[in-house]
# Entry
Amino acid sequence: MVTKKGCHLCERVIGALEELAQRYDIEVRTLDISRDAKLTNKYFLEIPVVQVEGRDVFTGRDMTVDSAFVSKLERALKP
# Structure
């Protein structure tokens, strides 16, 4: 999960991911863009960004943390 300190939507997404981690074999890791200028340039307007196996799956532009988001993420996690 690509995030930055103080991003309230990021915190909500992390919470949803942690709930999913209890049902699926996934590890929730965060990557703070403020620690790397290249990441800041790439993701500043996109966070939060959910990645699955290194691929950007969802960005802040296309998500609302609700049951639909959780359903989309569950589909992305299934092989």
Remarks:
- The chain has a mean pLDDT of 86.
- The two ends are 19 Å apart (CA to CA).
